[in-house]
Amino acid sequence: MATSADAQIATGPITFRDLHLRKVEELRGVGEKRTADLHKRGINSILDLLMAYPRRWVDRTHECRLKDLQPGVEAMVLVEVRSVNKRMTKNRRSLVTAVVGDGSSRLTLTFFNQPYREKQLREGLTISVFGKADEYRGSLQMTNPVVDLIGDRTGRIVPIYPQSEEHGIKTWEFAGWVENALSRCEARGILDPLPESVIAELGLLPRHEALRNIHMPDTMETKEAARRRLAFDELLRVQLVLVGRKHQLEREALGISHSTSQKMVEQFIGALPFPLTSAQQRAITEISQDLVAGHPMHRLLQGDVGSGKTVVAVAALLQAVEGGYQGALMAPTEVLTEQHASGVCKLLEGLVVTDAENLFGSRPLRVEMLTNRITGEQRRDVLQGLEEGTVDIIIGTHALIQDAVKFNKLGVVVIDEQHRFGVEQRAALRDKSMLNPQGLPIVPDVLVMTATPIPRTAAMTVYGDLDVSVLDELPPGRTPIETMWASGEQSEAELWAQVREGVKLGQQAFVVCPLIDESEKIEAAAAEDTFQKLGFGELKGLRLGLLHGRMSSQEKETAMETFRRGETDALVATTVIEVGVDVPNATMMVVLDADRFGIAQLHQLRGRVGRGKIASQCWLVTQPPESGELVHEPGPRVEALVQTTDGFLLAEIDLELRGEGTLMDSRQRGTSDLRLASLRSDRELIEQARATAIAIITQDPTLEQHSELADELRILLTASEEEFLARS
Ligand code: ADP
Ligand code: MG
User: Fold this and answer.
1) How far, in Å, is the centroid of ligand 1 from the Cα of 470?
2) Could you tell me which of 8, 45, 5, 39 has the C-alpha nearest to residue 27?
3) 710, exposed or middle or buried, with CB in 10 Å at 0-12, 13-18, 19+?
4) Distance (Å) from CA 551 to ligand 2 centroid
5) pTM of the model
6) For every residue of 477-538, which 3-state class applies, written as one string?
7) Do the bridges between strand 126-136 and strand 74-88 make them parallel or antiparallel, or are there none, so unpaired?
8) Which residues contact 203 (CB under 8 A, 6 or more apart)?
9) 274 CB under 6 A from ligand 1?
């Protein structure tokens, strides 16, 4: 890429910074139009181009001739398009058929619901087709096969670039630019920022070779070796940020050494009407050790719905109070805050705090709540108590991080349902800290709670700046929720009959309406629709409530409150009920169009029931198939929910099913997104990247001696992505 002018000054291997500064328009064949197309795909620099990896590699050594195709066996064929035809089916679905041939025979391809195929598959085009051939009226055909446009690419392995067809850029054009860019790097070579020792120890390809082989591999093996190296780089970058942040928090911030006396905690646990689970005990011990230590705690408590996280949180808050500090518990919504407040107050009834200034040497523990609904006199009172230190434990919403809130001695912060809070909000609460005599801030200990279980190595990537405690055990004596799949008139009729039956026995039901991506407005309309239909139909005569995101918060609250008080029998709702709502009398959960939800979401929804003594039931409803479609199955996600209630197991299955997608996929599309690394199949690589990051950061916390790596973080992780990493 070097022009003759800077070729004189620039020698030595090319860095990512160099590639980042070179624009795509410098490449042969990239004119104004193509530049614009590339920009639309977020590709501005040569670095962007080289990091736009192929989506797939077609291995032509596995090619099969059409005459050798066997019905029922998967195969890849390389063929030319002979003719294309489009029409509509009776069910108003589009049907594109294409006849293809390779000189040895012909094959018909049929595509349902893929109208764009008509434009994509022009006559004379060379394509690779992968799928299972079936015999249909005496000749072979493939239905909805995987199609890749090959163009005039030769070579045994052909890279296929993402979305190329749709943006007007042909995959072979793209491949040509990449080849051009790579060939211009040959003379100087591309720098490898990894220490030699790491490369050797992990058996990684050098970076230049990896970039060459990911785009132009000779064999699938070299492609895989290249992928492993580049995936490692992605994971290492993420780990360097996370481990770096963790290191900084631990080493540089001034923390509080909390009381080692466990008197109040023991009193509290002793008064509980149940013994702790061993998972709770373990988590409390881990947290307690962090609290006693001098550096600030930054810990995640992962535990499935109902695993008893509140007790663990309260124990942490009490350990702060024991040593004369204050504890704060922050929840994402008013409903949850109130729920927490009443639950925690009940747990803490009768506890006393040692108080030297008090005539009797002790006083009752003071727990208060702060939300935007606490106003006037009451609010002033709470705020004053916080500032003077007479409020020991405060439970609140975002209201806690407003400027007017001042703590006397904030010692422990617990944040519930972390995904609702951003990094800034966590930081804002942490900043409500005291100053030490030298004027340096003393950072309170932070415990973040989440009910979304994720597998261990995935947690390392997503929550890598936190230590993790896991509640992997439910308290005994729960009646497991019975989960059923319902589809088709008869099974749906049965389910509504059971709901009516349950209501007769005094129980309540949630009915969750289909998830609609397009807008909250459509979703709300659908909920209203369902509400009407059920009211006049299956649930006629029952008292129905309605809850959706377009209602005012006053209306939502009323709906929730009436349901909680048992004055409505069934609550028809959108996913607004997802997080943390606790109505023990609700024992029935119906999720409509359940196959539109993700596993995690279904699991969260199901967790809304099964909170009382009575056995709960959950029905996952899916649409029956259109006539003519043969399969009638629940789909893998609904199937998984029917099979198990174990959140960690479900999280594993979720990762499996999502294949190469990652936990991060829907949330951001940045250069730092894990493109090649997979949280599912690269577990070993994740651990290696983490270990490498820890080794590097421990020895060189600011990456001074690893300036190339540091520079790559600056290029590839924007501020928002870094924040994303910490938040998700
Ligand atoms: P989570 O917040 O993890 O979903 P909670 O803390 O709300 O769970 O606890 C759910 C229910 O289980 C509460 O009613 C709580 O009192 C009860 N619980 C907690 N720990 C235990 C235990 N060790 N044995 C029996 N019940 C428990
Ligand atoms: Mg909870």
Assistant:
1) 14
2) 45
3) middle
4) 25
5) 0.72
6) CCCCCEEEEECCHHHHHHHHHHHHHHHHCCCEEEEECCCCCCCHHHHHHHHHHHHHHHHHCC
7) antiparallel
8) none
9) yes
Classify strands 617-621 and 544-547 as parallel, antiparallel or unpaired.
unpaired
- For the chain, give the percent of residues with pLDDT over 90: 48
CATH 3.40.50.300 boundaries in the chain: 263-471, 481-644
Residue 422 has pLDDT above 90, yes or no: no
Class level of CATH domain 56-160: mainly beta
Domain 481-644 has CATH 3.40.50.300: yes
What is the predicted pLDDT for the residue at 533? 93
Q: How far is the CA of 475 from the centre of ligand 1 (A)?
A: 7
Cβ of 305 closer than 6 Å to ligand 1, yes or no, is yes
Asked whether 244 lines ligand 1 (CB < 6 A), one says: no
In this predicted structure, what is the pLDDT of residue 155?
Answer: 73
Check if the beta carbon of residue 339 is closer than 8 Å to that of residue 611.
Answer: no
Cβ neighbours of residue 290 closer than 8 Å, sequence gap 6 or more: 297, 299, 445, 467
Name the pairing type of β-strands 94-101 and 106-112: antiparallel
Ligand nearest to the CA of 275: 1
Instruction: Tell me how far apart the alpha carbons of residues 306 and 324 are, in angstroms, rounded to a whole number.
Output: 30
Residue type, 459: A
The fold of 1-55+161-188 is DNA polymerase; domain 1 (1.10.150)
Q: List beta partners, residue 160.
A: 56
Q: Given this model, what pLDDT does residue 393 score? A: 97
Q: Which residue has the tokens 């309540």?
A: 508
* Closest-lying ligand 1 atom to the alpha carbon of residue 471: 3
Provide the token pair at 718: 């924007």
Q: What CATH superfamily is the domain 263-471? A: P-loop containing nucleotide triphosphate hydrolases (3.40.50.300)
Looking up tokens 């045994």 gives 156
Q: Which residue has the tokens 């198990």?
A: 644
* C-alpha pair distances (Å), 104 with each of 37, 83, 139, 441: 38, 17, 14, 77
Cβ atoms of 276 and 284 within 8 Å: the answer is: yes
